[in-house]
Design goal:
Elements lengths: L37 E6 L7 E4 L5 E5 L5 E6 L5 H14 L7 E7 L3 E2 L1 E4 L8 E2 L3 E2 H7 L10 E7 L5 E7 H6 L8 E2 L4 E4 L3 E9 L5 E7 L5 H7 L7 E10 L5 E7 H5 L13 E6 L3
Parallel strand pairs: 7-13, 14-18
Antiparallel strand pairs: 1-2, 1-5, 3-4, 6-8, 9-12, 10-11, 10-13, 14-15, 16-17, 16-18
Length: 285
């Protein structure tokens, strides 16, 4: 087991349009009441009905007279506080109150689980009542395993029913202690620490650092990245780069690309596969 301070690749926070970022396009789904929520109910026209109530196991609350007599049982499950206030007001008006002004405030939310997936030491679901810093949640889970891929992903359901996700480098969160990425984890979120993928490839010919190379990350390794990490091409290198690859049927195939066009972004970069041999021959003119 390793601690959270294992070295990893620095990855940027993918925050564009993400619901965790203030002002982003997607909005967090509204909180909906259920059993265990502790709420405050107020009626301006009849303060005797004011009460603090815990939503029961059946998802209902009881409105009581000061004598203890139950005036009504109201279903709260699945409603927002505003929706419940309107439901109570409608009920009171149906019982003879000319106009009911009702407010409902959530005093303490029920505990909800956070789902932990992937390379965390303990996958027991922590129960949260309120937003908790991401680092605290990971530490509570015992940290990450040695096979972590250097990033943590947090997924949350938005009000449109879709899930939004943000990816954060563990190096930023732990080693750098960047508070801007120590995001609040909300009850119901999913936290994933994906495993690292290991890719082994070989560089031969007119490349500064030839030989076997191993890449371990959740990111994709490409031809451009591999040559850049090896110090680039030699002075006499041909612009044509050959990738020797074993196909699915076991046969060897050769992929020839124009490296200069990839650098100029005229051609797409080429993702590497495990076992690829990258060959750059000498240019003779």
């Amino acid at each position: 087991m390793c601690n959270l301070r294992s070295p990893c690749l620095r990855l940027s926070v993918l925050a564009a349009g993400f619901l965790f970022v203030a002002g982003a396009g997607a909005q967090t789904a509204p909180y909906r009441l259920d059993s265990g929520d502790f709420i405050d109910v107020r009626c301006a026209e009849n303060p005797r009905l004011n009460a603090t109530i815990t939503v029961g196991q059946a998802g209902t609350i009881e409105l009581k007279e000061p004598t203890g007599e139950v005036l009504a049982e109201v279903l709260a499950r699945g409603l927002t506080t505003d929706e419940l206030a309107r439901r109570i007001a409608t009920l009171l008006e149906s019982k003879g109150m000319r106009q009911a002004t009702v407010s409902v405030t959530l005093l303490q939310p029920r505990p909800q689980p956070v789902v932990l997936i992937g390379e965390v030491v303990r996958k027991e679901k922590p129960m949260l009542r309120q937003p908790t810093p991401l680092l605290d949640v990971l530490l509570e889970a015992g940290g990450v395993t040695e096979n972590h891929g250097g990033v943590v992903r947090v997924r949350r359901r938005a009000s449109n029913g879709l899930s939004d996700e943000i990816e954060i480098a563990l190096e930023d969160l732990i080693d750098r202690g960047d508070p801007t990425v120590n995001l609040p984890v909300h009850p119901g979120d999913v936290i994933q620490v994906p495993p690292a993928r290991e890719l082994r490839y070989y560089l031969v010919g007119e490349i500064e650092d030839t030989g076997a190379h191993t890449f371990r990350s959740t990111e994709e390794m490409t031809l451009l990245k591999a040559i850049a990490q090896a110090g680039g091409l030699g002075d006499n290198a041909s612009r044509k780069v050959r990738i020797h690859r074993q196909a699915g049927d076991g046969k060897l195939v050769e992929i020839i690309v124009d490296f200069r066009r990839i650098l100029q972004r005229k051609d797409p970069d080429v993702p590497l596969q495990d076992g690829d041999i990258i060959e750059v021959k000498e240019a003779f003119f």
